[in-house]
UniProtKB/TrEMBL annotation:
The keyword Methyltransferase does not apply. The chain crosses the membrane at residues 24-43. Pfam families: Zn_peptidase. This is Metalloprotease.
Length: 285
């Protein structure tokens, strides 16, 4: 993956150096989406909540970035810039305006403007309340060491996936699915959550398709394979197997490894934003 020298977004907030935790606010669409989308890495909900249900102030201190972290910051900035270039062009072709999102980089815990306090245990997440993506750079190490998703494109896929949730928020999908939550059982809503996540995977694939047309980033076939491996690594069935738990399809919230790869590949193959209706069999009205 060739990304050095690419256009930086500049829409990045550096909130590293914060410490302490506050109680997570679960009210409204923001909190719900954090708990659903934030489980990208397959964390146990109760365990994650237990880690953050402690009243302690978040404090800011000066943060000394390592050389590797500085490199990852540049990488994330350029990848985000490429998503802006791609989605601005796609939206324009459909007669729409694309409002950019902001990527907030933090470590440990971070206070959001619309979703309470997020924690690195969530993995990367998108908060529709403030339309920002939140990323702890240490997740890059987890991708490789814990999930076996190696290669630079694995992290690029993760960022593009979260941008996919931003696309859903802009188009009103998240608002619709959130409204359905109160009308469904947990098992029923899990199916909606899976469709939501698979569509974000599809949008990540659409971005990868158009990178060569609208961005200075250059991808190879091996990069796309890395992206599919990353998608497979965070499939619900794969994560449950790794945790030595029985595979329970009714508890899936993100989709199987096969589904995630399938939808990412479909986005990459078609490059068509209108070909990713993962909700085809579900009435969102």
């Amino acid at each position: 993956m060739k990304w050095q020298g690419g256009r930086k977004s500049g829409n990045i907030e550096d909130k590293r150096g914060m410490s302490g935790r506050r109680k997570l606010t679960l009210g409204g669409i923001g909190g719900i989406v954090v708990l659903i989308i934030g489980f990208l890495i397959g964390g146990d909900p109760q365990q994650l909540l237990n880690q953050i249900q402690q009243a302690a102030p978040i404090q800011q201190s000066e943060y000394q970035s390592t050389e590797e972290e500085s490199r990852l910051m540049d990488f994330a900035d350029i990848v985000l810039g490429s998503t802006e270039d791609v989605w601005k062009n796609i939206f324009a072709a459909n007669g729409w305006d694309y409002p950019v999102t902001t990527l907030t980089v933090y470590n440990g815990a971070v206070e959001t403007a619309g979703c309470g306090v997020g924690h690195s245990a969530f993995g990367p997440f998108y908060c529709p309340g403030d339309q920002k993506i939140y990323l702890d750079l240490s997740f890059n190490d987890e991708l490789s060491s814990k999930y076996g998703a190696k290669g630079e494109f694995a992290l690029a896929y993760v960022i593009a996936h979260e941008v996919g949730h931003h696309i859903q928020n802009v188009l009103g999908v998240l608002q619709q699915t959130n409204a359905m939550r109160a009308k469904m059982s947990e098992r029923e809503y899990n199916k909606i959550s899976v469709m939501t996540e698979l569509q974000a995977d599809f949008y990540a694939g659409v971005w990868a398709h158009h990178v060569k047309h609208y961005s200075s980033i250059e991808l190879t076939y091996d990069d796309i394979v890395d992206g599919m491996r990353a998608a497979a690594a965070v499939g619900d069935d794969h994560l449950q197997e790794r945790a030595h738990r029985d595979v329970n399809p009714e508890s899936f919230t993100h989709g199987t490894s096969e589904q995630r790869v399938q939808w990412f590949k479909k986005g990459y193959d078609t490059g068509d934003i209108n070909a990713g209706n993962t909700f085809e069999s579900t009435n969102l009205e």
